[in-house]
Automatic annotation (TrEMBL):
Its EC number is 2.7.1.-. Belongs to the KptA/TPT1 family. This is Probable RNA 2'-phosphotransferase. Keywords: NAD, Transferase. It is an enzyme of class 2 (transferase). Pfam families: PTS_2-RNA.
Length: 184
């Protein structure tokens, strides 16, 4: 992704996940805003920058390895990572048997005591594969701890899981009993 699109992608994520009000946007219950409203807000904040158009957003979505956003008709939303106060409506889904979470060595003891908590987000983010968990974990630790989540057992015990995209799953929390250290 070129630097212009990368910068736009970061700003779109910020606007749709964390600060829609700063852009004059209001997320609907599922986290959508009109594409035209987002484009207007982005372009108003950066009048000297080449205007962002729908095709830019479509290209960002198409080439992103993390699939953070989606456009449906004339609306766009962030798929996961929200820290806004109002809860985003999600439909529960049966998770794969195992999911993964990359974390720092520093956080490990706390997680093994109290489970995975969403911290400043609405949901705990889980990875569908070890590679994604490693990538996420490296943001906080050069050699992250990879936790395996017994998602099948957790789901059987009544925990709800939500699909963020094909590689990211979400849950309100994951109690420690469903966690094991895959490697550290």
């Amino acid at each position: 992704m070129n630097s212009r699109l990368a910068q736009i992608s970061r700003e779109v994520s910020y606007a749709l996940r964390h600060a829609p009000q700063e852009y004059g946007l209001k997320l609907d219950g599922k986290g959508f805003v009109p594409v035209e409203a987002l484009l207007g807000a982005l372009n108003a904040r950066h009048p000297a920058r080449r205007a962002v158009v729908r095709e830019d957003l479509e290209e960002i979505i198409a080439i992103s390895d993390k699939k953070r956003h989606e456009i449906v008709g004339d609306r766009i939303r962030a798929l996961y990572g929200h820290s806004v106060r109002d809860k985003i409506e999600r439909v529960p889904s049966a998770p794969p048997e195992a999911l993964y979470h990359g974390t720092s060595h520093k956080a490990l003891e706390s997680i093994l005591d109290g489970g995975l908590l969403p911290m400043g987000r609405q949901m705990v983010h889980l990875s569908a594969d070890v590679e994604m968990a490693e990538q996420v974990g490296r943001r906080r630790d050069g050699h992250p701890v990879i936790l395996q989540v017994d998602a099948s057992a957790a789901h059987s015990d009544g925990l709800e899981f939500f699909e963020g995209n094909d590689r990211v799953w979400l849950a309100a929390n994951i109690p420690a009993q469903y966690l094991s250290v895959l490697y550290s």
